[in-house]
Amino acid sequence: MTEIYWFEFGRWNGEDYYEQMWKSNLIGLKNIIRLQEKLRFRLVHFSSSEVYGDYDGVMREDILDKLAIKQLNDYAISKWANELQIRNSQLLYNTETVIVRLFNTYGPGEFYHPYRSVNAKFCYHALMKLPVTVYKGHLRTSTYVDDAVRTIANISDNFIPGRIYNIGGKDLHTIENLVDIIWDYTGAPREIITYKESEILTTKVKRVDVSLAEKELDHKITVSLEDGLHRTIDWMKKYYNIK
After folding, report:
1. What one-character DSSP code corresponds to residue 69?
2. What SUPFAM superfamilies is this protein classified in (predicted)?
């Protein structure tokens, strides 16, 4: 039996509701681990690209074991602490866990919330013609949900205890480019966009190495950023009944 679960998400969520975030992520995971030690099930833990913190090189899974990296916000710290909790249990009780570090996964089904990731948030703001702030100079990859889910599902067929996988896109894009695609497709007014310099407590460039997931989980990017955003916007139009 393999258990997959999800806890509190998002750096600003972690800042605004820090008590809930710490209780859910740290105490919640510890409870799951205690059950795992007793019942001996396999576990897939969702970590985050946020654990790479201020590292400005190519983000490979083993880099946190080689360098002292500073996580940039409470949420990131909690996700790294989660990984250490898992490692301790593996050493003490020989539990079997795979850790997944997700990079900006998006797509249909992700309804709007202020703490959602940038792709969903900007799609909603464009459709609703709501003001939005865009921070310049940040580089990201984006992973369409279908591609991420297919890769994650393959863990069950090739479960290697102790493995850590980056699951992300292959092509870097700016947040400004993301906005251009969304605004061009929706026809939203550009006047609602306010551009500012780099956002504080946020990694500027997330350059990810997904070669291990490609090799062991057949990770593939089949949906382009433009196509994925169009699909997401079309879904939101139906979900929110936007004509």
Report:
1. P
2. NAD(P)-binding Rossmann-fold domains (SSF51735)
